[in-house]
Amino acid sequence: MTERSEVSRPHLRLPREEDFRAEGHDVRVAARLGLLLGVAFGLCFVTGVLSHVAQHGSWWPTRPVNLYRVTQGVHVLSGIAAVPLLLAKLWSVYPRLFARPVVRSVGHALERVSLFVLIGAAFFQLATGMFNSAQAYPWLFRFVPTHYAVAWVAIGALLVHVAAKLPKIRDGLRRQVGRPTPGAAGLSRRGLLATSGFAALAAVVATAGATVPWLYRVSPLSWRAARGPQGLPINRSATAARVGRVGADWRLTVEWPGGRRELSRDQLAALPQHTVRLPIACVEGWSASAVWTGVVVADLLAAVGAPTGRVRVESLEAVGTYRESLLLPDHVRDRLTLLALGLNGEELSLDHGYPCRIIAATRPGVLQTKWVAVLRVLP
């Protein structure tokens, strides 16, 4: 009778933190990636708040004319740079998920909860921001208020995480990265840092042409960078806005407390015209400069006897979040705020806002109302 020899089976267990031996799983790498990611997140948050103020605030400066172009460009590009940095940062620290015990104290539990909130909010912000840049909205919630609210959640969770990890962050930054360990698996510490930095830089360069004109030729992934009708891109066409042919009976209505005046397009064209080169910059991050011709809004109000002040601009567009916009007093008085009739030496095309549109320095593109029907001076 032959005895069967027992075959030893490997003992199965969950991995532990010490099982991950790649050099990239090191506090020196995590601290430096965290610093880069913190800079990207900080820029994205600050410029995002500025974007919200520009769209919804009660004051926004009229100079310099490229202000919103720069702040919104930095907002979108810093978000793009954050994507590879976030992935690299998570890779460097994910072995800590397998540390035992899972929770060591109440403080440690709160730290872990804040970390998961931070990761979730960060991915939500970066993903929805990139969808917004592509003008794709595969969700049911309103993008702008939700994105803005979650930004505060993300920055709050980030501050809690930094406060909790400050001793380790200091230790990691003080220690030299050091030379690669012979025979170590995976990328070295320097290799991971270099790869992450290059990936972030490559992502920025590949997309920056949408807002930095001189990078257009080397930015293959630039969105909305291709020139549209009359040499300028469009976000929302007349067809999408359900604005059809504008007939000869169109009139611009100017209303103010105690007064009202209607003007035809020929009457607008007969008023003194002003030509200026101004950028138009959209929340998606693209921007372009163009030559605009039209009537200075302050001159138009003076010509019909209306006072200056806050002006509500109403569009022929029947529905839409931005069918109305508010011109703040500083913009109403500014000589660069036009009711534009022409673009790049031609009459406005319908897609660019015929019969007239607002163009004003530093205003977000969504507030540069097209197909204007009414200028209402508010009390």
Explain this structure.
Helix content is 41%, strand content 14%. By secondary structure, the protein is an alpha+beta fold. The chain has two domains: 17-177 and 186-218, Fumarate Reductase Cytochrome B subunit (Up-down Bundle), CATH 1.20.950; 252-377, Oxidoreductase, molybdopterin-binding domain (Sulfite Oxidase, Chain A, domain 2, Alpha-Beta Complex), CATH 3.90.420. A five-stranded mixed sheet has the order 2-1-10-5-6. Strands 3, 4, 7, 8 and 9 form a five-stranded antiparallel sheet that branches. Helix 1 (27-56) packs parallel to helix 5 (189-207), helix 2 (67-93) runs antiparallel to helix 5 (189-207) and helix 3 (106-133) crosses helix 4. The longest helix is centred in the middle third of the chain and has 32 residues, at 143-174. Mean pLDDT is 92; it is low at 1-5.
